[in-house]
Amino acid sequence: MHTPVTIIGAGLGGLTLARVLHVRGVPVTVYEAESSPSARTQGGMLDIHDYNGQLALKAAGLMNEFHAIVLEGRQAMRVLDRDGTVLLDKADDGTGGRPEVQRSELRRILLDSLPAGTVRWGRKVSSTRALGEGRYEVTFVDGCTVSTNLLVGADGAWSRVRPLLSTATPEYAGTSFVETYLFDADTRHPAAAKAVGGGMLIAPAPGREIFAHRESGDTLHTYVALARPQDWFDAIDFTDAAAATARIAREFDGWAPELTALITDGDTAPVLRPHYALPTGHRWDRVPGVTLLGDAAHLAPPNGEGANLALLDGAELGQAIAAHPDDIEAALTEYEQAMFLRSAEPATFEGVELSEIFSGDNTSHGLIDMITEKGK
Questions:
Q1: Cα–Cα distance between 16 and 23 in angstroms, integer?
Q2: Residue 222, beta-bridge partner list
Q3: pLDDT for residue 43
Q4: In what order do the strands lie in the sheet with 145-148?
Q5: What is the reported pLDDT for 121?
Q6: Quick one: which of 125, 101, 100 has its CA closest to 14?
Q7: Above 80 in pLDDT, residue 147?
Q8: What is the mean pLDDT of residues 259-268?
Q9: What is the pLDDT of residues 310-328, one digit of tens each?
């Protein structure tokens, strides 16, 4: 007989866990702070990898739905020098293992795969506490409570479940993104659209970088990455969009206009996204009846793996619980041992460790040399 599972957080990892449990007949309820599926935008593009994220979707029985939302051609990649010279132009020939989808669409297919009522919306957690004998109480901001014998924290960076297992808290990782969008780019921002091409653009330099993705239609999503302390960003008034845009753009003085246009010509106000991380190799001793997945367990700066690891965490935890219906501790131990090993591996992009890419020697030529060397 299966113990009902209580999941906190309806992100990709929590929903994958709920789906895998549902198809295996395990009762599950998900509590989510957001008031509805459309309460906020769900971020940009995700590349879902054949060695982790896609394995999770196979376990969830959603590969057909996944293939239906893949944006063809978006695995193309260009590396540009700061003067606009195209140094690497990799076409998407359809054989790559990292197809791109919109995060919102991936979340939608996961939500659609669950019975009505599985996700309880508008249930923001204020605290959790142990009741003893492997039981836990979850208190919501409205004062309501639920108790459970099996609690999973899938509630992200600032998890309310994590304190049951660990005293670790996220710390600023030394880098931040500033995001903006350019809409109808092919007609309204043709130079920037041409620079980005059909997929992803990377224009790196020491301490700074411009990323851009071509999302659905002809929308360009810009991520300006800057290695600056938090107080540097605190000095910028992001409520004044024009002033904030101008300040960020000054960090790229002298760069090609088609690159700086990805900052200055944004159709949305710039949004600051500071990066936080849990300690490398974060883990905890086994505590009966509770565990974590995704960013709640192994938060790291953006590296292309976060969503994929959350998906795989959810799938593997669901499979372990279903495989051990009478021994939840065996299931959680099996899951955590694999998850700890996986999350301790160095993050890579195109086979190159992220610590190398974001080093002080970060240049377009250096990035291409590392990608080429790793590909040999």
A1: 11
A2: 180, 212
A3: 75
A4: 125-132, 135-140, 145-148
A5: 98
A6: 125
A7: yes
A8: 98
A9: 999 999 999 999 999 999 9
Greatest Cα-to-Cα distance within the chain, rounded to the nearest angstrom: 66
Q: Each residue of 153-185: b (16+ CB within 10 Å) or e?
A: bbbbeebbbbebbbeeebeebebbbbbbbbeeb
Is the entire prediction scored with pTM above 0.85? yes
Residue 100 CB neighbours (<10 A): 25
195-216 CB burial, b ≥16 within 10 A, e <16: bbbbbbbbbbeeebbbbbbbbe
| Cα 136 from Cα 145, distance rounded (Å) | 10
- Mean pLDDT, residues 126-131 taken together: 98
Q: Which residue has the tokens 């920037």?
A: 192
CA-based R_g, the chain, Å: 21
- Taking the alpha carbons of 309, 310, 312, 316 in that order, is the dihedral positive or negative? positive
Do residues 219 and 182 make contact, with C-beta atoms less than 8 angstroms apart? yes
CB 318 within 8 A of CB 20: yes
Residue 374's CB is within 10 A of a number of other CB atoms, namely: 14
3-state SS string for the chain? CCCCEEEECCCHHHHHHHHHHHHCCCCEEEECCCCCCCCCCCCCEEECCCCCHHHHHHHCCCHHHHHHHCCCCCCCEEEECCCCCEEEEECCCCCCCCCEEEHHHHHHHHHHCCCCCCEECCCCEEEEEEEECCEEEEEECCCCEEEECCEEECCCCCCCCHHHCCCCCCEEEEEEEEEEEECCHHHHCHHHHHHHCCCEEEEEECCEEEEEEECCCCCEEEEEEECCCHHHHHCCCCCCHHHHHHHHHHCCCCCCHHHHHHHHCCCCCCEEEEEEECCCCCCCCCCCCEEECCHHHHCCCCCCCHHHHHHHHHHHHHHHHHHCCCCHHHHHHHHHHHHHHHHCCCCEECCEEHHHHCCCCCCHHHHHHHHHHHHC
Q: Output the CA torsion 63→301→373→74 (10° steps).
A: 40
68: tokens are 């239906």
